[in-house]
Amino acid sequence: MLLLLRHVLRAAVAEGNGVRLLVLATYRDTEIGRNHALAGVMADVRRLPGVEQLAMAGLSAVEVAELVSRTAGHALDDDGRRLAERLHAETDGNPFFVNEIVRLLVSEGRLERWEESGSWSIPIPQTVHEVVDRRLDRLSESCSRVLSIASAVGREFQLKVVEPLA
Questions:
Q1: Dihedral angle sign, alpha carbons of residues 105, 109, 111, 113
Q2: What is the tens place of the pLDDT at every residue in 30-80?
Q3: What is the pLDDT of residues 125-165, one digit of tens each?
Q4: Lowest mean pLDDT among 9-18, 53-62, 90-99
Q5: Quick one: pLDDT at residue 59?
Q6: What is the 3-state secondary structure (H, E, C) of the chain?
Q7: Which contacts of 3-12 are long-range, i.e. CB under 8 A and separated by 24 or more positions?
């Protein structure tokens, strides 16, 4: 698949063909070593004219507070803002981590207790896999397969896009 991507991109930027192409792909740079196939493809692709690579950063402390507020369904008081600051510090603003932690706190009724006490520790998962596995374990194998395909499409997707792939 990576070689196909490289081929398509090279063909799209070939001199004089007039093709305009937007390819959006994501990967976690922390999971790609020097010997990974993607590293070589990315090195080749970055040299092509018109190719731009954007590094994504985590949410700011203000953005984490907004995410916590929206997920909780109410404005944050001082304790809630302290929680958001701690979440930002603990997760480096990773939106997935922040969202999953807050959703876990809300679903277990612990967000309001934290806001009231403001003193107990935040249940930060060791890895994102622990959070996801708790939800995915309840799904059938076929549902997990469809979700895996859908995750490549994005957070929101249309069934007509995912169905042919599944």
A1: negative
A2: 667 888 888 888 888 888 888 888 888 899 999 999 998 888 788 888 888
A3: 555 567 667 777 878 888 888 888 888 887 678 888 888 88
A4: 9-18
A5: 94
A6: CHHHHHHHHHHHCCCCCCCCCCCCCCCCHHHCCCCCHHHHHHHHHHCCCCCCCCCCCCCCHHHHHHHHHHHHCCCCCHHHHHHHHHHHHHHCCCHHHHHHHHHHHHHCCHHHHHHHHCCCCCCCCCCHHHHHHHHHCCCCHHHHHHHHHHHHHCCCCCHHHHCCCC
A7: 3/41, 5/41, 5/45, 6/41, 6/44, 6/45, 9/45, 9/48, 9/51, 10/48
pTM of the model: 0.52
Structure tokens at 50: 């018109």
Report the amino acid identity of residue 33. Answer: G
Contact assessment for residue 6 and residue 41, using Cβ atoms and an 8 Å cutoff:
yes
> Rounded CA gap, 78 and 116, in Å?
10
**The pair of three-digit structure tokens given for residue 44, joined into one six-digit string:** 């080749």
- Least Cα distance to 120 among 88, 83, 85, 84 occurs for 83
